[in-house]
Amino acid sequence: MASSRLKYLSLGVLVFQTTSLVLTMRYSRTLQAEGPRYLASSAVVVAEVMKILTCVLLVFKEHSYSMRALNSILRQEIAHKPIETLKLAIPSGIYTLQNNLLYVALSNLDAATYQVTYQLKILTTALFSVSMLGRRLGVYQWLSLLILMAGVALVQWPSESAPAPEKEALSTGSQFVGVTAVLVACCSSGFAGVYFEKILKESKQSVWVRNIQLGMFGLVFGLFGMLAYDGERVKESGMFQDSLIWRIGLPRRPRSCLCPSVSVCLLFLQALGGLVIAAVIKYADNILKGFATSLSIILSTLISYFWLQDFDPTGVFFLGAILVIVATFLYGYESKPSPNPSRA
Ligand code: C5P
């Protein structure tokens, strides 16, 4: 069946994209002492523009490469339906808020607490899927989600041989701020994903048109964010801080600067992520997305061990990996859940 093929294809591409993104990020860390020279806030803007342009191309392809059809679909579905378009401002605004909350959380928590606590989003996503989409999960499926959460938490548990990150001792106050930020981000992740799923599955509209609408708001919020956080630096040295794209193809690069091909690769993978997540939400669902990203955490860690040799797998890691795999099979085990009204 075509829809089942698209479901597994999109999930497979998500595993590939997430694994490649994590590996490229790790690899970029081994290349340089400093962080990338470009601004994170301008990278968000570039990624949104790339996502919108790719989605426009996909809509163009969907309409047999007719400029006239593309023009009319964009006008009819986006410009002439402001209420429908505005609906996408909600997940887009929430995702922007979420990205900022995660930044607050990372600045106030150690990486392990952050990663482990953020896995609660697996449960919030399931709860929102049940309450907003009327999805019904069997006992085995709830159990498998709990096992998945525990498994991912263990996989990300720091090994004792890993050097302790040099970080000032975190006060109880900042721990509280960090944990609160992660918990709110877990709720926002579940809600925004399921809200987007509801919009996609309740209308016949193309997923790429929906993604253009989402990306337009993402771009506006991203531009505001860039001006608010880095307005002065952008005014001084431009959006790309004299790096990134401008350096592509230049034979010389300063030693402290992230290799242009790696930074461009990171940008592409991030933009691809937005597209693949949209496809996964459309053809599979948010809960299966959680399984795909959990499997790619294991995959990227293992590849990292063989390739970058910056990780020593411990017994805890293997226990976590086994739990994730068991959870994945257990979720599929009860293969006939009650009919799902949200699925067309
Ligand atoms: O952690 P979580 O899975 O909720 O993160 C989803 C991420 O995917 C967010 O950063 C959001 O900006 C991005 N996204 C996207 N395009 C979509 C859906 C999500 O870029 N259509």
UniProtKB/TrEMBL annotation:
Principal localisation: Golgi
InterPro entries: EmrE-like, Nuc_sug_transpt
Annotated keywords: Golgi apparatus, Membrane, Sugar transport, Transmembrane, Transmembrane helix, Transport
One GO MF term attached to the UniProt entry: pyrimidine nucleotide-sugar transmembrane transporter activity
Entry GO CC: Golgi membrane
Compartments it resides in: Golgi apparatus membrane
Transport is among the record's keywords: yes
Keyword Ligase applies: no
Membrane-crossing segments per the record: 38-60, 137-156, 176-196, 208-229, 261-281, 288-308, 314-333
Domain of life: Eukaryota
Membrane-topology descriptor: Multi-pass membrane protein
Protein family membership: Belongs to the nucleotide-sugar transporter family. SLC35A subfamily.
Protein name per UniProt: Solute carrier family 35 member A3a
Native species: Lates calcarifer
Designated gene of the protein: SLC35A3
